Amino acid sequence: MLTIVFFAAAEKSHAAIKTIPLDSLVQHYDLNSDRRSSGLFVCPETLDYALFQDTQRALTNTLSTTTLPDFRHDNRYCFVAKLVNKTHEKNWVLHFSNLFINDISVLIYSINGEKKYHSNLSKGVTDEALNVFGRAFYIDLNPNEDYTFIFELKSNSLVSPPYFSIMTEPSYHQWSYTIGLTFNLAVGVVLGFILMAFLSASVMKDITFFWFGFSSLLMLVFFTIRSHIGVYLLQGTEELPSWIWGWASLTSMSILLFVRSFLSIKKENKYVADLIIKTVVFSYMMVFGLSFFLDRHDNIILYLVCSIIMSLVIFYAGFSNGHKLKGYYLLFILGWLPLFYSFASIAFILTSEPGLYDNTLSYSVIFEPFLQIIHMIIHFMALLMRIVDLKKKKYQAEMKSEAKSQFLATVSHDLRQPLHSMSLFVSLLDEHIKSENGKVILAKVSGLQFLMSKSFNQLMDISKLESGLVKSDNEWIDLHLFTDKLRQEFSHQASLKGLSLRFHVTKQAICTDIQHLERILRNLISNAIKYTERGGVLIAFRAHRTGLLIQVWDTGRGIRIEDQSRIFDLYQRGQETKSNQSGMGIGLAIVKQLVDVLGAEIIVRSKPCKGSVFSISLPVKAEHAAEHSGNNDMEKSLRWIAEFSGHTLCDQVTEQMSRWGYKVETHSPKDDNADVIVHLIDITCFSDLSALMHYKDKPNLHIVIGFLNQNCLELINRPIKNNIYLLPAHYQAAQLRSLARFIMKEYAKHS
Fold it and tell me: What letters, b where the CB count within 10 A reaches 16 and e where it falls short, cover 184-201?
């Protein structure tokens, strides 16, 4: 944002030029504010000693001088001063504070001749030395010798009042080091805050911190471009390059995005707020496009108008929220004041002509980064207060959600028995009603009772899901068999509406909870068919990174953008769905809860009147995949043999092992060429365990899993060798599965 405005230079006059004695080793002699110098005046084309004599005569006749040159009207200004060195120091420094006057020439006359110094920043830095404020020339002044200084300044653009001074070389080095260190420290602190903002955005996943850091980084450029850094960024050009205007537009738009992400705008005002912000953003884009055809002066005016509009938007947005007595909104507005003061001070420097003998040295270049530090500190405080407020709101929302869940649980408990009794009474009424009208009414009552029971079951399900009582019991399932079941269930429903129902499966097996996945897909497919009038529904399974991507596509009415963010919310429902469909509308809420139980992620993409796609990214754990894929490869090298004396335990173990993907044989193999054989046996006494020792003499690796009855449980505490593992007959399924996995890993080491 550039806030530079018009100015008008007033005309003044100095007295006759007198000699300025240099008698201090530490003083900075301000030449252009000294009453004994000529002051700035429009000079002729020649720059020589005759100019000094002409100036002397002109001052006698009241030469028009100024402290704020108008280079747009006259591009050459001169300045004359006489000095005498009264000290023993020979090494002096001539300093110029204005870096935007790129062309400066200095003629120094003495009885020993003349010397000329020249600086043109558009041609690069040569003999001059740069500091934070400007440039300097190292000159030699002999003690007790008179010198005449004639300065020539050339420019074509708006500039702030120039400042000339002379000081000894040690004094200059100390001053330059101090201001340079102060400036670098301020810029470093700002960069530290910007880095902190980016880190906060990364850790907290809050886009507000990102826009805060990004806008602050862009603003820092404008606060440093008037320093020596600007010489390298602008390459000494008087006319600002086109990228500067693009930078100004980008800075302003980033500030607007920061404001937009910080403020909590009500839903009813969101459309108007977005429209205002989009209008301002479009204005900056349009102004940037015009900047290629306008000069610097007109561009400044346009950006000034846009900046005023943006400032009004920021203040209005902040105060409209601040009246709610939320302190961080008012603090947010307060944080902009240092920046506005910085830009106002720049405008004041460019527009206000100093007094005839006022010091024109401005330290605003150093103050501006410090003002930005104050701005960032205040806004960091506002952001932290905002985070605390949002956490409080989140806690309150969680408490409300918990209260709703408890309410659902209570209502579900109270409704269970009446609904069950109602279903019994309705079924008994059938034999007592003989008339046709009575049977019609009974059918309607029965249908309503069925809907009530369905809604009740959904309430029970959502209550269990929200309370965290539902867990995932993973097992390997064949997708082809799984999808065949879904196809048979929904093909008739789809054909009744003239819709195509297609399944695309590229992976044959996954490890997940089959009941949860089946219910998720039932809800999604049912909704897809319900809200699709023509076209069809596609259910696709395909590998995706380390998991499985399941997508349900339809060509239905689609979901409006404003409804997509709340379709999974139990307590909200799309407006169109509310008016056109029956039911409680909690099917998708159950889907979202079940997806979370499976550790998956669901995303919806939709276009109104074109269709929707629900995508479920289902993780497949590496150890599960390796376990399943490894079973087929190792069938010939590892065998599981069940050698139980009874059928009950044998059926239980083999059924569970088969469900986990292990092939268990119930008889000893004719060929004994497997590398590893795992024997699953039941043990009734210690003698049975001792009889297993003969396996150690065979070439194969034999592993024994013994299931102990109640009489042999004391064997569990005994040390068992030779690859023998014991489990109780009433084992937990997790114990057997964990042991099976351990054996698979041990087998991999053995092979």
Answer: eebbebbeebbeebbebb
Separation of alpha carbons 681 and 708, rounded Å = 9
For 56-68, letters b (16+ CB in 10 Å) and e give eebbeeebebbbb
Q: Which two three-digit tokens encode residue 410? A: 């209570």
Tell me the C-alpha distance between 431 and 438, whole Å: 11
Phi, psi for residue 555 in degrees, rounded to 5? -115, 35
Which amino acid makes up residue 116?
A: K
Prediction pTM value: 0.57
Write the CB contacts of 328 (distance below 8 Å, at least 6 apart in sequence): 381, 382, 383, 385, 386, 389
What is the tens place of the pLDDT at every residue in 654-684?
A: 877 876 667 788 776 655 666 677 778 877 6
**165 within 8 A of 28, measured Cβ to Cβ:** yes
Find out whether 29 and 20 touch, Cβ atoms under 8 Å.
yes
> Cβ neighbours of residue 212 under 8 Å, at least 6 residues apart?
197, 258, 262, 379, 383
- Phi–psi pair at 669, nearest 5 degrees: -70, 145
What is the total residue count of the chain?
A: 751
CB 258 within 8 A of CB 380: no
Q: Using alpha carbons, select from 645, 564, 565, 660 the residue that is nearest to residue 612.
A: 564
654 Cβ neighbours under 8 A, 6+ residues apart: 642, 664, 666
**Contact by Cβ (8 Å): 660, 736:** no
Maximum Cα–Cα distance for the chain, whole Å? 136
Token pair of 120 as six digits = 């043109």
Ramachandran sector of residue 679 (left: φ over 0; alpha: ψ -120 to 50; beta: rest) = beta
